[in-house]
Amino acid sequence: MSGPEISTLIHVIVAFFIAGTLLFQWRAVHPVLSSSDGDDQIREQIRGRWRPMVHVGATILVVTGLYQLMAVGMPKADFQDTLEASGPAYHMLFGIKFLLAIGALFIAGAMVGRSGLMVKIRQSASKWLSLGIVLVIAVIAISRYLAQMPSA
Question: CB within 8 A of 42, min separation 6: which ones?
């Protein structure tokens, strides 16, 4: 396996791991803990255990994503320029994907964070987790489109 293939594998595994936990929180954890009183301790224990995973996962995603852009994306974008093909440009789609992914990672981080600034986000977790899922779906759709773009 080449460097870009290994990077892609790591990137996809970590991305699905974090996206899966957003979905699990949205449909399983949050509704159960919101329906009963006195579950603040459980919520804090979950956040405490999950916090390092989100932070390490976000770092891995950014690093492997930027490597993917340099190793795979730049040659694809250069090849696309030589074709003068109509349609959305690689860099534009990557930029949109990157911003959406940062939004999803922000929501994941806010759900596990300790900052007092994120309390309002955690209090309306259902709404924010729903938005996070929509962002993840958009990132996956754009990723598939980018992966299918022709390369040299």
Answer: 33
Band the pLDDT of 44: cuts 50, 70, 90: confident
Q: By the 8 A CB rule, do 108 and 55 touch? A: no
Helix intervals (H) in 84-124: 90-112, 119-123
pTM: 0.83
**Mean pLDDT, range 85-96, rounded to an integer:** 81
Q: List the domain boundaries for the chain.
A: 3-147
SS (H, E, C) 133-150: HHHHHHHHHHHHHHHCCC
Split at pLDDT 50, 70, 90, the class of 119 is confident
Are 101 and 138 spatial neighbours (Cβ–Cβ below 8 Å)? no
Residue 74 burial (10 A CB sphere; 0-12, 13-18, 19+): middle
φ, ψ for residue 67, nearest 5 deg? -65, -45
Q: Is residue 39 predicted with pLDDT exceeding 80?
A: no
Task: State the Cα torsion 127-132-138-140 to the nearest 10°.
Answer: -150
